[in-house]
Amino acid sequence: MPQPVSDRIMTVRLPLSNDNCDTIIGVYDPTMTNPDENKKAFYNQLASVLSGIPRTNKLQLIGDFNARIRRDNDKWPLVVGKRGIGKCNSNGELLLALCSEFELIVTNTSSSRMMNARPPGCILVPNSGI
């Protein structure tokens, strides 16, 4: 059963074998026109949710992050691949910092598929084992 955290964050936990779960977090990040305080509050709340998920769980963080992730991955080598789009915006910087803190990878920057053929948003997964 989906659990709303806020009007922008929702979680679903699906039981797997061995008492583990697949935790799916759906998000809708504030748009670029929102004040920075709103964006930071969103990422603080999301960090709080991520902190409460056991590391043994499978994790998928999906949604519309209103973020642009740059092609240059020198600053975030464990988080982003070489297939970002253009320049990073402020939402992208916040997203990358969160991913770095929780050891997540922005998977759609590692794929060789056409970036503009995908829907908005991205899927983030723990970077161990990939």
Automatic annotation (TrEMBL):
Matches recorded under InterPro entries: Endo/exonu/phosph_ase_sf, Swc5/CFDP1/2
Write down the Gene3D superfamilies for this protein, in alphabetical order: Endonuclease/exonuclease/phosphatase
Q: What SUPFAM superfamilies is this protein classified in?
A: DNase I-like (SSF56219)
Classify the source by domain of life: Eukaryota
Query: What's the name of the protein?
Result: Craniofacial development protein 2-like
